[in-house]
């Protein structure tokens, strides 16, 4: 859990209501109910909207696309604005969970970057349902000094090698390694790392990804939800590496600098590319305050408002007119607004079919539940321990009637081979 709340988060909390069901929220011309990611809004965004319109904003936060999706599927969400990832929004559009926008009420659509609109049109033909809030990419974030010390040498050429090469991640375990608790983020990256289709439908590809994830699982010290679940830990030096979101890593870097913690945090841009995401504003099918929802979307698309979001949370926005209002050090930061060349290496969002989603979920669940999996030793062999009648190979030890091979030891009636010792 996050242990320190910055002042602007306290403001957001003060504006949020106690979490209740949609049934308890009657239609109210002066109310707007928003469900958004944590750590994803400027301190004055809501305040200025309320002052200008007289509309009272009720603002709640979630920490994963899966959590939001479940609420929309259940129905009667109680929200007028939600902010899913575009890949989840595509599923929600297909399921009739989101309503079409009335573009006549959105004159500020003219400010949006046609290139971003074209990307979203792949998920939402005609851009009929979605407007981009902010965008970024899933990548590797590190505590520079701690990681270099742990590795005992330079960083690998491809940043993903830090997390997916067992011999590297094993060195980082002592200083803390976190992975996003999201199958839809981790599996495409793992598949891409193996040179496979990141949105494969083949069981064999997921078996290969499972083997890779199993090899690194003992070195993953925690799984995290939204950025609020790891930002402060990075800023304080409690985590040295994370598979996380670019802007959240930037927030951690800024927070460490402001708090003078002495930690140097950096969002890396992997040579083989990060995983792009577009978080989008949408209106649920059962929204009660649709007119107010349109007012909010058009307000966000004002150049100075979209710029305020980027200036606060270090994510790129889709608003070309906003760049004049974005702080120069942010607008010119290639880790926040990547070049066209870097963007070309990024993985686009994808939408697996239902059968593949089940495979993805099962693979990720097994990954999380398997902390005693094999780990590569420095010489490139597997080191495995097994107890309770299990068997182990490749330099492992086994007890409780198990067998061991490859230089391992075995006890309790077990057999051992490859130079190993055996007792019992």
Question: Could you outline the blueprint of secondary structure elements for this entry?
Answer:
Blueprint: H1 7-15, E1 31-37, H2 45-53, E2 56-62, H3 65-74, E3 81-82, H4 86-94, H5 114-121, E4 131-143, H6 144-151, H7 161-164, H8 166-172, E5 177-180, H9 183-193, H10 203-216, E6 222-224, H11 231-235, E7 241-245, H12 246-259, E8 265-267, E9 275-281, H13 290-300, H14 303-313, H15 328-331, H16 340-343, H17 354-368, E10 375-376, E11 382-383, E12 385-386, E13 397-398
Parallel strand pairs: 1-2, 1-3, 5-6, 5-7, 12-13
Antiparallel strand pairs: 4-7, 4-8, 4-9, 10-11
Helix pairs in contact: 9-17, 10-17
Q: Can you give a write-up of this model?
A:
The chain is an alpha/beta fold and 424 residues long. Helix content is 36%, strand content 14%. It has helices at residues 7-15, 45-53, 65-74, 86-94, 114-121, 144-151, 161-164, 166-172, 183-193, 203-216, 231-235, 246-259, 290-300, 303-313, 328-331, 340-343, 354-368; strands at residues 31-37, 56-62, 81-82, 131-143, 177-180, 222-224, 241-245, 265-267, 275-281, 375-376, 382-383, 385-386, 397-398. The radius of gyration is 24 Å and the shape is globular.
